[in-house]
Design brief:
Layout lengths: L1 E5 L5 E4 L1 H5 L8 E8 L4 E6 L3 H14 L8 H4 L2 H10 L2 E7 L2 E2 L6 E6 L5 E10 L1
Length: 129
Amino acid sequence: MGFSVETESRLTTVDVTDRIAAAVPDDCESGTCTAFVEHTTAGLVVQEDEPRIRGDLESFLRDLVPDEGHAHDQLDGNADSHLRASLIGPDVTIPVENGELALGTWQSVLLVECDGPRTRTVSTTIVGD
């Protein structure tokens, strides 16, 4: 199962927790859910969905990886996006308990867009016990 995510700016975050949770079948009491973003310039992270921490994450990635000055920029000008996404990673795996994602109180799944605006595809795989 998969879904699309529309992003609105070059470096941003989008909460996709509810869309991932919707992929858990009604008959799955326990197991694992893996979500995977099918792109090299976006990633997924488990983090608090709070505007200030989301802004801090974006600032952290901007500070860590400069916008320009990379060899790949000669090809299409988005090396910074590839490098930022490689730090985040393309997937998260979350336990399923009692038919629901077993996230902590403040945990959400955020798609981190590093080369937007774009349409992103997230696939989900559920493995039940």
